[in-house]
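Attaching the record inline, Q. Sequence:
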Amino acid sequence: MSEQDDLEREFDIKWAGAAEHKEPSARARMLAARWKENPPDPAPFRAAPERHAPRRSSWISTAIVLGCVAAVILLLGWAQTRSPY
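Structure, as predicted:
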């Protein structure tokens, strides 16, 4: 067997995927070590919205955006009529 065949066999993806033991990534090892001493607080998958902030309804936000767009269109139209060219 040639040296080329040895290298191909050594770095074969199928061979690596079939390994019984896979070493965790450096980040996983770091977090495991950190959490061993100081575990993180449990958190839900989706956090509940904060209750102290007032929430605007979606139609108010839509009206504000459309009003700004209309104001820009009117301003550009006015500027075009005032230009000498």
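The two ends are 82 Å apart (CA to CA). The mean pLDDT is 81.

More tomorrow.
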